[in-house]
Amino acid sequence: MARMLNDVIALLNRLIQVDNAAIEPYKPAKARLEDSVDRAEFGAFLADHRRHVEALTIVVRNLGGEPVGHGDLRQVLLRGRVDLHGLVEAGVLIEAMRTNEAQATAVYESAASQPGIPVDVVAVLQQNLVDERRHHAWIVSRLEGLRSGPARSK
In Å, what is the CA distance from 86 to each residue of 20, 27, 91, 93, 96? Predict the structure, then answer.
C-alpha cells in the first residue's frame, strides 16, 4: 500500500512539474501578444496552470507527501523557445504554446487513466485534463483562424 501511495505522490509531483513548466512560457508569451483576445486567453490558461499546481500541491500534502516546487528541464527549454519566438508573428508564438499544451494534455491523459489512483485524486486529474484539452483546442482553433482568415481587431 505504501509503495502504491508513493507512486501516486510521484505521479502528482510529475504533474506539478508539467504545470510549472507550462506557467513560465505563458508569462512572456502573454506579454508579447498584440491581440487582446489572445492575451486574455493566455492569461486564463496561465491562471488554470497555477490553479492546477495549487490543487495538486494540496493533494500531495493530504497524501503525506512533499510537493515539488519547481518545473523540470522542459521549463527551461520552452522558456527559451517562447522568448525566441516572441520576436516574430503571433502565429509562431501560439504554435509554440500548442506544443506545450499538447504535451501537458498527453501527460494528464496518461495520469488520469492509471490504475490504483484514489477516486478523489482522479477527480482532480480529470478536471485538470478538461482544462488542458480546452487550452489545446482553443490554440488549435486560433491557429486555424490565423492561417485562413483576416486578423481580429486588437
Answer: 20, 11, 10, 6, 10
Which three three-digit cell numbers place residue 16? Answer: 506539478
Q: Is the CA virtual torsion 80, 129, 111, 4 positive or negative?
A: positive
The residue type of 8 is V
Is 75's pLDDT higher than 70? no
Q: Please check the confidence at residue 49 and state whether its pLDDT lies above 90.
A: yes
> For position 84, what pLDDT does the model report?
41
Q: How far apart are CA 71 and CA 74, in angstroms?
A: 8
- Domains in the chain and their CATH numbers? 7-147 (1.20.1260.10)
Listed range (54-68, 74-88, 111-125) with the worst mean pLDDT = 74-88
Write down the H helix ranges in the chain. Answer: 2-32, 36-62, 73-85, 90-112, 119-148
Q: How confident is the model at residue 153 (pLDDT cuts 50, 70, 90)?
A: low
In this structure, the number of other CB atoms found within 10 A of the CB of residue 103 comes to 17
